[in-house]
């Protein structure tokens, strides 16, 4: 990818900013509150599409339906509900997911095989299909090509999230302006192994389908697969990208002269959403960023970064503003990859705490202030073993995480 940033963040942009897309949401009765719990995205033309999914063995019914819809590499609409995961619900749950697809296709006047389905919420409970049917019937009048529709959609996909997650950028492709946008939900059950959330990306780029899938996978590996909140991977996680092709650019593929610029912009959207998920971890007060360099290769660096950011002891120390580097180096040592134990450097922000695996005298008060006052805590690990680098993101572990998850179903 290009080292120079060639894309521009679109302030106030959303999943409806790319040409051809509408979105909306409403409350149909799946949630106990009056918050939106059903949403949809519609493209005015069949869009080139791709998806990646959770690696959890117990995959929810909507994932089977969406995989089936994406066999031909196109989608025109997707429907998503929150408040109920429709996971581990047997044949009835599967039938309900297919009914959601069929009902959405009828209401939006698109081919049934061009509709994706996603669900998020409590596992093991059947959907209230009367509410879902009524909600889907009301979706068409809620769909909007402006910011209002995108806002209603973003609200419809949230569960324990405190804030919506969205990002939008523009980039030049062959002299044409191309827009890439995304919206996601995720706050708990977040751990590497795709997709660690529900995510939806839209773009008006004309792009080859196989290259879109490969780009989605590559971007996921360095963004969504590099975040963790609690070490759990959900049954429902998926990331779906839709490309309308209405920007008027010459079709993108890996040989296109502007491919690297487009890929960098696409990856930026994924990274922004991923960091937003980590920052909004259940009960979290801080984003933790772990940068590893000097590993034997990138894969080793990624394993170490994810182990450190996922350590409950490291996360607890950050919450307590305790500069306990011993927890960090212990995590480095148990990551399961080659490390020279005599030459590791560790820093907290700009404060060096370990050099060549030896403790460094540092100002404890300065470290306390840094850990207490920083919204983002940076942990840097230098291994001096090779050229491998990686960055991972997570959050601190707080009392509120236990409170939220102790009563999730109630």
UniProtKB/TrEMBL annotation:
It comes from the Bacteria. This is Arginine biosynthesis bifunctional protein ArgJ. SUPFAM superfamilies: DmpA/ArgJ-like (SSF56266). Substrate binds at residues 159, 185, 196, 282, 405, 410. GO terms for biological process: L-arginine biosynthetic process; ornithine biosynthetic process. The active site is at residue 196. One of its GO terms (cellular component) is cytoplasm. It comes from Paenibacillus agri. InterPro entries: Arg_biosynth_ArgJ (IPR002813), ArgJ-like_dom_sf (IPR016117), ArgJ_beta_C (IPR042195). The keyword Amino-acid biosynthesis applies. The record marks 195-196 as: Cleavage. Heterotetramer of two alpha and two beta chains. Belongs to the ArgJ family. The record marks 120-121 as: Involved in the stabilization of negative charge on the oxyanion by the formation of the oxyanion hole. Catalyzes two activities which are involved in the cyclic version of arginine biosynthesis: the synthesis of N-acetylglutamate from glutamate and acetyl-CoA as the acetyl donor, and of ornithine by transacetylation between N(2)-acetylornithine and glutamate.
């Amino acid at each position: 990818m290009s080292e120079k940033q060639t894309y521009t963040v679109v302030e106030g942009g959303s999943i409806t900013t790319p040409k051809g897309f509408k979105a909306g949401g409403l409350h149909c009765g799946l949630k106990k509150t009056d918050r939106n719990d059903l949403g949809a995205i519609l493209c005015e033309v069949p869009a080139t599409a791709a998806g990646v999914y959770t690696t959890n063995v117990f995959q929810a019914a909507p994932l089977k339906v969406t995989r089936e819809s994406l066999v031909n590499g196109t989608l025109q609409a997707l429907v998503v509900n929150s408040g109920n995961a429709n996971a581990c619900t047997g044949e009835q749950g599967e039938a309900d997911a297919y009914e959601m697809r069929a009902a959405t296709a009828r209401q939006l006047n698109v081919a049934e095989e061009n509709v994706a389905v996603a669900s998020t919420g409590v596992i093991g409970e059947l959907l209230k299909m009367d509410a879902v049917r009524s909600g889907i019937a009301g979706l068409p009048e809620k769909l909007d090509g402006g910011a209002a529709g995108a806002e209603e959609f973003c609200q419809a996909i949230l569960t324990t999230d405190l804030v919506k997650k969205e990002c939008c950028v523009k980039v030049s492709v062959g002299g044409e302006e191309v827009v890439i946008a995304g919206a996601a939900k995720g706050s708990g059950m977040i751990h590497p192994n795709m997709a660690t959330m529900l995510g939806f990306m839209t773009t008006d780029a004309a792009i080859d389908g196989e290259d879109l899938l490969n780009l989605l996978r590559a971007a996921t590996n360095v963004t969504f697969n590099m975040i963790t909140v609690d070490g759990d991977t959900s049954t429902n996680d998926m990331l779906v990208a839709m490309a309308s092709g209405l920007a008027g650019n010459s079709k993108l593929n890996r040989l296109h002269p502007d491919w690297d610029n487009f890929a960098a912009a696409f990856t930026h959207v994924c990274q922004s959403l991923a960091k937003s998920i980590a920052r909004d971890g259940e009960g979290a007060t801080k984003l933790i960023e772990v940068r590893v360099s000097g590993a034997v290769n990138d894969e080793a660096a990624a394993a170490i970064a994810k182990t450190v950011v996922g350590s409950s002891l490291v996360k607890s120390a950050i919450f307590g503003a305790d500069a306990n580097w011993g927890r960090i180096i212990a995590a480095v040592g148990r990551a399961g990859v080659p490390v020279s134990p005599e030459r590791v450097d560790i820093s907290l922000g700009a404060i060096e705490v370990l050099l060549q695996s030896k403790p460094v005298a540092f100002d404890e008060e300065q470290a306390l202030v840094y850990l207490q006052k920083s919204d983002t805590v940076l942990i840097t690990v230098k291994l001096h073993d090779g050229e491998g680098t990686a960055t991972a993101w997570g959050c601190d572990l707080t009392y509120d995480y236990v409170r939220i998850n102790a009563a999730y179903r109630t």
